[in-house]
Amino acid sequence: MHISEGSLPLTHAAAWTCASAPFLAHSISKLKTLRESRYLLAASAGYLFTLTALKLPSVAGSSSHPTGVALGTVLAGPAAMPALSLIVLLFQALLTAHGGLTTLGANVFSLGVAGPWATWLLWRLAARCGLGDQPAIILATALGSLATYACTSLQLALAHPDPSGGVTAAFLKFAAVFSVTQLPVATLEAAFTVVVLRMVVNAGGVRIAGLEAWAQL
User: Fold this and answer.
1) Residue ranges per domain, the chain?
2) What are the b/e assignments for 101-124, b being 16+ CB within 10 Å?
């Protein structure tokens, strides 16, 4: 998911930075209202950093790994994730050569915006359709992870369209390569997220709408 330095034209990098900016501004203001939840935010950021650091080689100029966005999305809401993603991605770009500074806006958009909002919307939709709490989280986490990579595939396709098939063909090619590693990774991440979320609920008396009963599991 981390698009590496130099993999996007500067115009594309600037455009994705502009697209991420309003979400980041809202996220930073949102975090100010969540000061009482700072321990959960710290746990979410640590979880995000750990899972996104487990990178596997994938599409040239990018990598495949768990996204780690579901925990923070459930605990703090999708609006908190752009700021947490920025912190994690900036640290990784500067200290671990994972991602890049010019591609920071694009990576924040895929990891901090597309993934969390897809996860949250799918979670709420699954819950409204009567799916149980744990199945809803598993489904939302897996599909939200895939949505992150769909966004990255689109970003790469827009920057590097196929000579014959254009953006659509390039998107399908990038998505197909990502799917080889990301389908099993997303499935494992979904199961692991449920376990970690249950531990958080049990450990701290955390109250999450629809998940209070997990403390009894």
Assistant:
1) 10-216
2) ebbbbbbbbbbbbbbbbbbbebbe
Residue 33: how many CB atoms within 10 A of its CB? 10
Class (C level, CATH) for 10-216: mainly alpha
- Other residues' Cβ atoms within 10 Å of the Cβ of residue 130: 7
Percent helix, percent strand, percent coil in the chain, to nearest 5 = 75, 0, 25
Burial class (CB in 10 A: 0-12, 13-18, 19+), 72: buried
Residue-wise pLDDT tens digits, 96-140: 878 889 999 999 999 999 999 999 999 989 988 988 888 899 999
| pTM score over 0.90 | no
| C-alpha dist (Å) from residue 142 to 137, 149, 191 | 8, 11, 9
Q: What is the spatial distance between Cα 20 and Cα 109, in angstroms, rounded to a whole number?
A: 5
